[in-house]
From TrEMBL:
Signal peptide: 1-17
Taxonomic lineage from the root: Eukaryota, Fungi, Dikarya, Basidiomycota, Agaricomycotina
Gene3D superfamilies the UniProt entry points to: Cupredoxins - blue copper proteins
InterPro entries from the UniProt entry: Cupredoxin, Ser-rich/MCO-related
PANTHER family for this protein: EXTRACELLULAR SERINE-RICH PROTEIN, SERINE-RICH PROTEIN, PUTATIVE-RELATED-RELATED
Name the record gives this protein: Extracellular serine-rich protein
Keywords recorded for this protein, A-Z: Signal
Keyword Signal: yes
Amino acid sequence: MLATSSFLFLLPALAAAQYGGYGAPVGPTTTTAAAVTVPSAPPDTPGQMNSAFESPCVHLAATSDSPTGFDSGLTQASTFTINITDTQPIWFHCKMATHCLSGMVGSINAPPTGNTFDAFMTAARASTSPTEPDNGPVLGGVHGVAIAGPTSSTGTSTGGGTSGAVKVTGSTGAALLSVVLAFFLA
């Protein structure tokens, strides 16, 4: 995993917003992405939901000034694509019951001082927000617009449609390439 994480830092165009769970990070918990780059949520996360820094474990609700935040829905083995529309911080959390309260949060473009990722994670762990219902994917978002709903990487069982089994995402390709590089550099 160290080779994969290290290699992903060398490929900013393939930035993947990952976050740790239960106090044990599984990869970089925050990333920086310029406008128009498209990170994908890791396929092994059950659900990502846009939130505000002030309310880390609450879905970002629509206001008169902005749309509702993105929500991948509770799904695994899928990729959820977000188009980064500017360089403002984007805060998100895992919507699975108790995950956010355990620190499964993440950020894109978090500032190094003030409202930092560490402050966001601390606030999430101190949160008393109730579990949110799963109403399925919500496209849209603030500073990061979900442009494609979750797509399965395991294919379909009905035989209809297009199989997702042959799809290789940027993060999967980067992971495979880093494994090959680690093998040759070892």
